[in-house]
Write a structure and sequence with these properties.
By secondary structure, the chain is mostly beta strands. The chain has one domain. Helix content is 10%, strand content 28%. The protein is built from 1 helix and 3 strands, in the order βββα. It has a 3-stranded antiparallel beta sheet. Strand 2 and strand 3 form a beta hairpin.
């Protein structure tokens, strides 16, 4: 999770807990961004999504997202520089064995 221009945001709560559990709880607001990262045998992928709307009349928990930029297999071309630190932190977290802490918080 990061701010609208890739900056770190302060979590509401950082629980001390188990690996692969919730490591930081944020208050999501429209305009904030979600960073999704995956690392596997086919390489690494990162996608940044901006939150457009939270909740719909049919589903109050729904998130309406738009893709801001993406990265795949070493090609940073087209990836916005503002989100580079957030992307690197997301990749680091995706490779953190038995992770028990947030990697990109203010």
């Amino acid at each position: 999770m990061c701010g609208p221009t890739g900056e770190m945001v302060e979590p509401l709560f950082v629980p001390k807990g188990y690996c692969n559990d919730n490591h930081a709880v944020f208050v999501a607001q429209p305009g904030m961004c979600l960073v999704e990262a995956a690392m596997g045998c086919r390489g690494e992928d990162v996608t940044v999504y901006r939150i457009i709307t939270i909740g719909t009349p049919d589903d109050p928990d729904a998130l309406i997202l738009e893709e801001v930029c993406s990265y795949a297999d070493g090609d940073w071309n087209g990836f916005l520089a503002d989100f580079r630190r957030a992307a690197e932190a997301a990749l680091s977290k995706s490779m953190c064995y038995r992770c028990r802490e947030p990697h990109y918080v203010a």
